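Lecture notes, continued. The same structure-token format from the folding unit now serves as the input rather than the output. Read the line below as a description of shape only.
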């Protein structure tokens, strides 16, 4: 527990500081986090980071996560769909060059991992770069963290009925409802103290989405780990696991809020 607290304090201080500063350092940190996240998924699957599929996966992730205004410089005016197609063709070529030791299943895994992690972290960056993006990003993160804490403490205190035992044996329905409740409380506290300037209806919808889809993101990560037989996605954060263990909820909530235009 001591190690977990120390790691949490150091990681939080670093992330808050770099997020408040923003600009190029924040963009580079987000790209680094995305690359670590994809590395963790590749490692679960048993794909070497230095193999052809691994390197293509990293390249794809960079293409999805880098800021929009960098893409034309880094990728020579290729559109996202053209870039994705090139990555797909390269991966399919590897299946032939490897004499099918790298299969079509692996192609799908690398593509989906790059999309899932790359775009997830891309929307973290895009949120920070919006007008009032600093307060908006922390508003969303406060609700996600509130939902996570609420699910844990309500589950410990009142949990009886298992939520999804095949995926995550310790999660309960009572804990999940408690997480949604705390997300709503955090959202409306931010609303009433004027931390953000959304309407009460938008705050309600965003808090529900943070509470519900944040927990779904956590379940998705649990499903990955259970399928591949690992306890944590990585060990970069002693006492906490990997990057995806700590940020899995972000990768669901932030893209959804942008796609549904709730932040505009």
């Amino acid at each position: 527990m001591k190690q977990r607290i120390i790691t949490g304090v150091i990681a939080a201080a670093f992330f808050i500081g770099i997020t408040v500063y923003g600009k190029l350092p924040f963009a580079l940190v987000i790209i680094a986090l995305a690359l670590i996240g994809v590395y963790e998924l590749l490692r679960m699957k048993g794909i070497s980071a230095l193999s052809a599929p691994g390197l293509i996966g990293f390249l794809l992730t960079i293409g999805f996560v880098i800021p929009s205004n960098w893409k034309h410089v880094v990728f020579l005016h290729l559109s996202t769909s053209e870039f994705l197609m090139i990555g797909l063709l390269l991966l399919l070529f590897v299946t032939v060059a490897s004499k099918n030791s790298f299969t079509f299943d692996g192609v799908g895994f690398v593509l989906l991992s790059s999309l899932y992690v790359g775009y997830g972290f891309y929307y973290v960056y895009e949120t920070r770069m919006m007008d009032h993006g600093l307060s908006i990003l922390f508003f969303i993160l406060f609700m996600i963290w509130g939902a996570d804490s609420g699910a844990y403490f309500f589950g410990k205190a009142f949990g009886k009925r298992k939520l999804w035992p095949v995926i995550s044996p310790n999660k309960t329905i009572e804990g999940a409802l408690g997480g949604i409740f705390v997300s709503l409380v955090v959202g409306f506290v931010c609303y009433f103290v004027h931390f953000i300037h959304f309407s009460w209806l938008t705050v309600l919808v965003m808090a529900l989405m943070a509470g519900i889809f944040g927990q779904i993101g956590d379940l998705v990560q649990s499903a990955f780990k259970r399928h591949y037989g690992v306890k944590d996605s990585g060990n970069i954060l002693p006492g906490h696991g990997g990057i995806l263990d700590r940020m899995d909820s972000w990768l669901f909530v932030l893209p959804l809020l942008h796609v549904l235009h709730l932040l505009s």
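Point for the exam: The first helix runs from residue 2 to 21.
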